[in-house]
Protein backbone atom coordinates (compact mmCIF):
# COMPACT_ATOMS: atom_id res chain seq x y z
CA UNK A 1 0.00 0.00 0.00
CA UNK A 2 2.94 2.32 0.60
CA UNK A 3 3.70 2.21 -3.14
CA UNK A 4 0.22 3.32 -4.22
CA UNK A 5 0.67 7.13 -3.77
CA UNK A 6 3.90 6.99 -5.78
CA UNK A 7 2.20 4.90 -8.49
CA UNK A 8 -0.73 7.34 -8.69
CA UNK A 9 1.68 10.28 -8.90
CA UNK A 10 3.49 8.50 -11.73
CA UNK A 11 0.19 7.96 -13.58
CA UNK A 12 -0.80 11.63 -13.18
CA UNK A 13 2.62 12.72 -14.40
CA UNK A 14 2.41 10.42 -17.42
CA UNK A 15 -1.09 11.68 -18.30
CA UNK A 16 -0.04 15.32 -17.99
CA UNK A 17 3.12 14.77 -20.07
CA UNK A 18 1.13 12.94 -22.74
CA UNK A 19 -1.49 15.69 -23.03
CA UNK A 20 1.00 18.59 -22.97
CA UNK A 21 3.41 17.05 -25.48
CA UNK A 22 0.68 15.80 -27.85
CA UNK A 23 -1.12 19.15 -27.99
CA UNK A 24 2.23 20.90 -28.51
CA UNK A 25 3.27 18.65 -31.39
CA UNK A 26 -0.14 18.94 -33.08
CA UNK A 27 0.10 22.74 -33.03
CA UNK A 28 3.72 22.58 -34.23
CA UNK A 29 2.89 20.13 -37.06
CA UNK A 30 -0.19 22.10 -38.06
CA UNK A 31 1.95 25.21 -38.48
CA UNK A 32 4.54 23.14 -40.38
CA UNK A 33 2.06 21.51 -42.76
CA UNK A 34 -0.65 24.14 -43.16
CA UNK A 35 1.29 27.40 -42.92
CA UNK A 36 4.73 26.36 -44.20
CA UNK A 37 3.58 23.83 -46.82
CA UNK A 38 5.37 20.68 -45.60
CA UNK A 39 2.75 17.91 -46.11
CA UNK A 40 4.91 14.79 -45.63
CA UNK A 41 3.34 13.41 -42.43
CA UNK A 42 4.48 9.76 -42.66
CA UNK A 43 8.09 10.65 -43.44
CA UNK A 44 8.07 13.16 -40.58
CA UNK A 45 6.87 10.40 -38.24
CA UNK A 46 9.83 8.20 -39.25
CA UNK A 47 12.16 11.08 -38.35
CA UNK A 48 10.36 11.40 -35.00
CA UNK A 49 11.05 7.76 -34.20
CA UNK A 50 14.69 7.93 -35.29
CA UNK A 51 15.30 10.97 -33.07
CA UNK A 52 13.49 9.20 -30.22
CA UNK A 53 15.72 6.13 -30.56
CA UNK A 54 18.90 8.25 -30.75
CA UNK A 55 17.84 10.19 -27.64
CA UNK A 56 17.10 6.99 -25.72
CA UNK A 57 20.40 5.47 -26.88
CA UNK A 58 22.31 8.45 -25.48
CA UNK A 59 20.29 8.20 -22.24
CA UNK A 60 21.06 4.50 -21.99
CA UNK A 61 24.78 5.09 -22.59
CA UNK A 62 24.70 7.70 -19.82
CA UNK A 63 23.16 5.05 -17.51
CA UNK A 64 19.90 6.98 -17.13
CA UNK A 65 18.03 3.70 -17.62
CA UNK A 66 19.01 0.05 -18.01
CA UNK A 67 18.36 -1.69 -21.30
CA UNK A 68 16.53 -5.00 -20.98
CA UNK A 69 16.77 -7.73 -23.57
CA UNK A 70 13.44 -8.73 -25.13
CA UNK A 71 12.80 -11.60 -27.53
CA UNK A 72 13.86 -10.24 -30.93
CA UNK A 73 10.95 -11.78 -32.81
CA UNK A 74 8.47 -10.12 -30.44
CA UNK A 75 10.19 -6.73 -30.76
CA UNK A 76 10.38 -6.87 -34.56
CA UNK A 77 6.73 -7.88 -35.00
CA UNK A 78 5.64 -5.28 -32.45
CA UNK A 79 7.68 -2.52 -34.12
CA UNK A 80 6.44 -3.39 -37.61
CA UNK A 81 2.81 -3.54 -36.41
CA UNK A 82 3.02 -0.07 -34.87
CA UNK A 83 4.73 1.33 -37.95
CA UNK A 84 2.09 -0.19 -40.24
CA UNK A 85 -0.74 1.20 -38.06
CA UNK A 86 0.64 4.73 -38.47
CA UNK A 87 0.83 4.22 -42.22
CA UNK A 88 -2.77 2.98 -42.39
CA UNK A 89 -3.99 5.95 -40.32
CA UNK A 90 -2.30 8.39 -42.70
CA UNK A 91 -3.65 6.56 -45.75
CA UNK A 92 -7.11 6.57 -44.17
CA UNK A 93 -6.90 10.33 -43.79
CA UNK A 94 -5.77 10.63 -47.41
CA UNK A 95 -8.58 8.50 -48.88
CA UNK A 96 -11.44 9.66 -46.61
CA UNK A 97 -13.09 12.89 -45.63
CA UNK A 98 -12.10 14.52 -42.34
CA UNK A 99 -15.43 13.47 -40.82
CA UNK A 100 -14.97 9.80 -41.72
CA UNK A 101 -11.39 9.89 -40.46
CA UNK A 102 -12.64 11.21 -37.10
CA UNK A 103 -15.19 8.40 -37.01
CA UNK A 104 -12.32 5.96 -37.61
CA UNK A 105 -10.50 7.32 -34.56
CA UNK A 106 -13.72 7.15 -32.51
CA UNK A 107 -14.19 3.49 -33.47
CA UNK A 108 -10.85 2.56 -31.87
CA UNK A 109 -12.29 2.71 -28.32
CA UNK A 110 -15.27 0.33 -28.77
CA UNK A 111 -13.13 -2.04 -30.86
CA UNK A 112 -10.44 -2.07 -28.14
CA UNK A 113 -13.10 -2.83 -25.53
CA UNK A 114 -14.39 -5.66 -27.74
CA UNK A 115 -10.93 -7.17 -28.27
CA UNK A 116 -10.02 -7.00 -24.56
CA UNK A 117 -13.37 -8.52 -23.60
CA UNK A 118 -13.17 -11.40 -26.09
CA UNK A 119 -9.46 -12.29 -26.02
CA UNK A 120 -8.24 -11.03 -22.64
CA UNK A 121 -11.49 -11.74 -20.73
CA UNK A 122 -11.44 -8.21 -19.31
CA UNK A 123 -14.70 -6.99 -17.79
CA UNK A 124 -16.04 -3.44 -18.31
CA UNK A 125 -18.85 -2.27 -16.04
CA UNK A 126 -22.02 -0.63 -17.33
CA UNK A 127 -20.91 2.67 -15.78
CA UNK A 128 -17.63 2.61 -17.72
CA UNK A 129 -19.47 1.78 -20.95
CA UNK A 130 -21.95 4.61 -20.33
CA UNK A 131 -19.16 7.14 -19.72
CA UNK A 132 -17.37 6.00 -22.90
CA UNK A 133 -20.61 6.43 -24.87
CA UNK A 134 -21.04 9.99 -23.57
CA UNK A 135 -17.40 10.76 -24.38
CA UNK A 136 -17.64 9.41 -27.93
CA UNK A 137 -20.90 11.26 -28.51
CA UNK A 138 -19.31 14.53 -27.41
CA UNK A 139 -16.20 14.09 -29.57
CA UNK A 140 -18.42 13.10 -32.50
CA UNK A 141 -20.52 16.24 -32.12
CA UNK A 142 -17.41 18.42 -31.84
CA UNK A 143 -15.26 16.97 -34.61
CA UNK A 144 -17.28 14.91 -37.09
CA UNK A 145 -18.67 16.94 -39.97
CA UNK A 146 -19.22 15.13 -43.28
CA UNK A 147 -19.29 11.36 -43.74
CA UNK A 148 -18.36 10.62 -47.35
CA UNK A 149 -17.86 6.89 -47.85
CA UNK A 150 -15.76 5.04 -50.43
CA UNK A 151 -14.67 1.41 -50.62
CA UNK A 152 -10.87 1.89 -50.54
CA UNK A 153 -11.09 4.45 -47.73
CA UNK A 154 -13.36 2.18 -45.68
CA UNK A 155 -11.00 -0.80 -46.05
CA UNK A 156 -8.02 1.35 -45.04
CA UNK A 157 -9.94 2.67 -42.03
CA UNK A 158 -10.82 -0.85 -40.87
CA UNK A 159 -7.17 -1.91 -41.19
CA UNK A 160 -6.08 1.22 -39.30
CA UNK A 161 -8.52 0.46 -36.48
CA UNK A 162 -7.43 -3.19 -36.18
CA UNK A 163 -3.67 -2.52 -36.26
CA UNK A 164 -3.92 0.43 -33.87
CA UNK A 165 -6.00 -1.49 -31.33
CA UNK A 166 -3.81 -4.60 -31.46
CA UNK A 167 -0.64 -2.50 -31.22
CA UNK A 168 -1.85 -0.62 -28.14
CA UNK A 169 -3.08 -3.79 -26.43
CA UNK A 170 0.30 -5.40 -27.10
CA UNK A 171 2.07 -2.34 -25.67
CA UNK A 172 0.24 -2.86 -22.39
CA UNK A 173 0.52 -6.67 -22.43
CA UNK A 174 4.25 -6.82 -23.25
CA UNK A 175 5.16 -4.36 -20.50
CA UNK A 176 3.23 -6.30 -17.86
CA UNK A 177 4.00 -9.86 -18.88
CA UNK A 178 7.70 -9.35 -19.64
CA UNK A 179 8.13 -6.89 -16.77
CA UNK A 180 9.75 -4.19 -18.91
CA UNK A 181 9.34 -0.44 -18.51
CA UNK A 182 7.89 1.88 -21.15
CA UNK A 183 11.39 3.26 -21.78
CA UNK A 184 12.89 -0.21 -22.29
CA UNK A 185 10.14 -1.29 -24.69
CA UNK A 186 10.30 1.96 -26.68
CA UNK A 187 14.11 1.73 -26.89
CA UNK A 188 13.92 -1.82 -28.26
CA UNK A 189 11.06 -1.25 -30.74
CA UNK A 190 11.70 2.31 -32.01
CA UNK A 191 14.37 1.30 -34.61
CA UNK A 192 11.99 -1.15 -36.29
CA UNK A 193 9.10 1.33 -36.28
CA UNK A 194 11.40 3.99 -37.73
CA UNK A 195 12.76 1.59 -40.38
CA UNK A 196 9.35 0.54 -41.69
CA UNK A 197 8.19 4.17 -41.90
CA UNK A 198 11.50 5.44 -43.31
CA UNK A 199 11.12 3.01 -46.23
CA UNK A 200 7.37 3.37 -46.78
CA UNK A 201 6.94 7.01 -45.69
CA UNK A 202 8.22 8.77 -48.83
CA UNK A 203 6.14 6.41 -51.03
CA UNK A 204 2.98 6.94 -48.98
CA UNK A 205 3.49 10.70 -48.88
CA UNK A 206 4.13 10.92 -52.62
CA UNK A 207 1.04 8.83 -53.30
CA UNK A 208 -1.11 11.11 -51.12
CA UNK A 209 0.41 14.52 -51.95
CA UNK A 210 1.81 13.94 -55.47
CA UNK A 211 5.03 15.54 -54.22
CA UNK A 212 8.51 14.15 -53.49
CA UNK A 213 9.86 14.74 -50.00
CA UNK A 214 13.45 14.66 -51.32
CA UNK A 215 12.71 17.34 -53.94
CA UNK A 216 11.21 19.71 -51.36
CA UNK A 217 13.12 22.99 -50.83
CA UNK A 218 13.86 23.22 -47.11
CA UNK A 219 13.98 26.78 -45.80
CA UNK A 220 15.60 27.61 -42.42
CA UNK A 221 12.20 28.14 -40.75
CA UNK A 222 10.91 24.78 -42.07
CA UNK A 223 14.04 23.04 -40.75
CA UNK A 224 13.58 24.79 -37.40
CA UNK A 225 9.98 23.54 -37.11
CA UNK A 226 11.01 20.02 -38.18
CA UNK A 227 13.69 19.94 -35.47
CA UNK A 228 11.22 21.27 -32.89
CA UNK A 229 8.64 18.65 -33.94
CA UNK A 230 11.24 15.86 -33.61
CA UNK A 231 12.29 17.05 -30.15
CA UNK A 232 8.68 17.18 -28.93
CA UNK A 233 8.07 13.73 -30.43
CA UNK A 234 10.55 12.20 -27.96
CA UNK A 235 8.22 13.25 -25.15
CA UNK A 236 5.13 12.15 -27.12
CA UNK A 237 6.45 8.64 -27.84
CA UNK A 238 7.80 8.17 -24.32
CA UNK A 239 4.56 9.33 -22.64
CA UNK A 240 2.43 7.18 -24.98
CA UNK A 241 4.19 3.97 -23.93
CA UNK A 242 4.18 5.12 -20.29
CA UNK A 243 0.42 5.87 -20.21
CA UNK A 244 -0.55 2.59 -21.90
CA UNK A 245 1.78 0.64 -19.61
CA UNK A 246 0.56 2.29 -16.40
CA UNK A 247 -3.15 2.40 -17.28
CA UNK A 248 -4.77 0.66 -20.26
CA UNK A 249 -5.27 1.07 -24.03
CA UNK A 250 -8.84 2.29 -23.43
CA UNK A 251 -7.67 4.99 -20.99
CA UNK A 252 -5.06 6.09 -23.53
CA UNK A 253 -7.76 6.45 -26.19
CA UNK A 254 -9.92 8.47 -23.76
CA UNK A 255 -6.91 10.70 -23.19
CA UNK A 256 -6.50 10.98 -26.95
CA UNK A 257 -9.99 12.45 -27.29
CA UNK A 258 -9.21 14.94 -24.53
CA UNK A 259 -6.28 16.01 -26.72
CA UNK A 260 -8.67 16.38 -29.67
CA UNK A 261 -10.87 18.74 -27.67
CA UNK A 262 -7.86 20.72 -26.48
CA UNK A 263 -6.48 20.96 -30.02
CA UNK A 264 -9.84 22.29 -31.24
CA UNK A 265 -9.85 24.86 -28.44
CA UNK A 266 -6.21 25.88 -29.03
CA UNK A 267 -6.83 26.03 -32.78
CA UNK A 268 -9.62 28.52 -32.22
CA UNK A 269 -7.70 30.55 -29.62
CA UNK A 270 -4.22 30.64 -31.19
CA UNK A 271 -4.75 29.89 -34.87
CA UNK A 272 -8.24 31.42 -35.24
CA UNK A 273 -9.76 28.28 -36.78
CA UNK A 274 -13.53 28.30 -37.44
CA UNK A 275 -15.44 27.49 -34.25
CA UNK A 276 -19.20 26.99 -33.88
CA UNK A 277 -21.70 26.40 -31.08
CA UNK A 278 -21.71 22.75 -32.13
CA UNK A 279 -17.97 22.51 -31.38
CA UNK A 280 -18.50 24.07 -27.94
CA UNK A 281 -21.40 21.75 -27.05
CA UNK A 282 -19.47 18.71 -28.27
CA UNK A 283 -16.37 19.60 -26.25
CA UNK A 284 -18.45 20.16 -23.09
CA UNK A 285 -20.23 16.81 -23.55
CA UNK A 286 -16.89 15.07 -24.18
CA UNK A 287 -15.33 16.63 -21.06
CA UNK A 288 -18.36 15.51 -19.04
CA UNK A 289 -17.89 11.97 -20.40
CA UNK A 290 -14.19 12.05 -19.47
CA UNK A 291 -15.13 13.19 -15.97
CA UNK A 292 -17.58 10.29 -15.65
CA UNK A 293 -14.97 7.85 -16.92
CA UNK A 294 -12.37 9.13 -14.44
CA UNK A 295 -14.85 9.05 -11.54
CA UNK A 296 -16.03 5.49 -12.27
CA UNK A 297 -12.44 4.26 -12.75
CA UNK A 298 -11.42 5.71 -9.38
CA UNK A 299 -14.47 4.20 -7.65
CA UNK A 300 -13.89 0.78 -9.19
CA UNK A 301 -10.19 0.87 -8.29
CA UNK A 302 -11.06 1.72 -4.68
CA UNK A 303 -13.58 -1.13 -4.60
CA UNK A 304 -11.02 -3.51 -6.10
CA UNK A 305 -8.38 -2.45 -3.53
CA UNK A 306 -10.79 -2.96 -0.62
CA UNK A 307 -11.73 -6.41 -1.96
CA UNK A 308 -8.04 -7.31 -2.39
CA UNK A 309 -7.30 -6.17 1.17
CA UNK A 310 -10.25 -8.15 2.51
CA UNK A 311 -9.19 -11.28 0.63
CA UNK A 312 -5.60 -10.78 1.80
CA UNK A 313 -6.73 -10.52 5.40
CA UNK A 314 -8.88 -13.64 5.08
CA UNK A 315 -6.03 -15.58 3.50
CA UNK A 316 -3.69 -14.45 6.26
CA UNK A 317 -6.10 -15.62 8.94
CA UNK A 318 -6.66 -18.87 7.07
CA UNK A 319 -2.93 -19.47 6.74
CA UNK A 320 -1.98 -18.66 10.35
CA UNK A 321 -4.77 -20.40 12.23
CA UNK A 322 -4.01 -23.96 11.10
CA UNK A 323 -0.30 -23.34 11.71
CA UNK A 324 -0.95 -22.32 15.33
CA UNK A 325 -3.27 -25.26 15.74
CA UNK A 326 -0.62 -27.64 14.44
CA UNK A 327 2.00 -26.12 16.72
CA UNK A 328 -0.31 -26.45 19.77
CA UNK A 329 -1.08 -30.03 18.81
CA UNK A 330 2.60 -30.86 18.38
CA UNK A 331 3.43 -29.22 21.73
CA UNK A 332 0.66 -31.17 23.46
CA UNK A 333 1.84 -34.44 21.91
CA UNK A 334 5.47 -33.70 22.93
CA UNK A 335 4.43 -33.05 26.55
CA UNK A 336 2.34 -36.25 26.59
CA UNK A 337 5.25 -38.27 25.17
CA UNK A 338 7.65 -36.83 27.79
CA UNK A 339 5.18 -37.64 30.57
CA UNK A 340 4.82 -41.21 29.30
CA UNK A 341 8.58 -41.68 29.13
CA UNK A 342 8.97 -40.48 32.75
CA UNK A 343 6.37 -42.96 33.90
UniProtKB/TrEMBL annotation:
Coiled coil: none
Domain of life: Eukaryota
Sugar phosphate transporter domain sequence ranges: 21-294
Statement: the UniProt record of this protein carries the keyword Transmembrane: yes
UniProt membrane topology term: Multi-pass membrane protein
Keywords: Membrane, Transmembrane, Transmembrane helix
Annotated localization: Membrane
Transmembrane feature ranges: 38-58, 70-93, 99-120, 127-145, 151-173, 216-238, 277-296
GO cellular component term, pick one: membrane
Name assigned to this protein: UDP-xylose transporter 1
Organism whose genome encodes this protein: Turnera subulata
Phylogenetic lineage: Eukaryota, Viridiplantae, Streptophyta, Embryophyta, Tracheophyta
Amino acid sequence: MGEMPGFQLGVIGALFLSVASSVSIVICNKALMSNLGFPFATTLTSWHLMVTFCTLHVAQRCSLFESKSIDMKTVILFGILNGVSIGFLNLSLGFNSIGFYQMTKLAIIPFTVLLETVFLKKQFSQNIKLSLFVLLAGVGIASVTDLQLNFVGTVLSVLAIITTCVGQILTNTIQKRLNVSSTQLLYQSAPFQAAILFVSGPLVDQFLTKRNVFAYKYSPIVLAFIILSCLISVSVNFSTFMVIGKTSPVTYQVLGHLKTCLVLAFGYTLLHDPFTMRNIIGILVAIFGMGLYSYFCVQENKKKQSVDLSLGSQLKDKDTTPLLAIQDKESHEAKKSAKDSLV
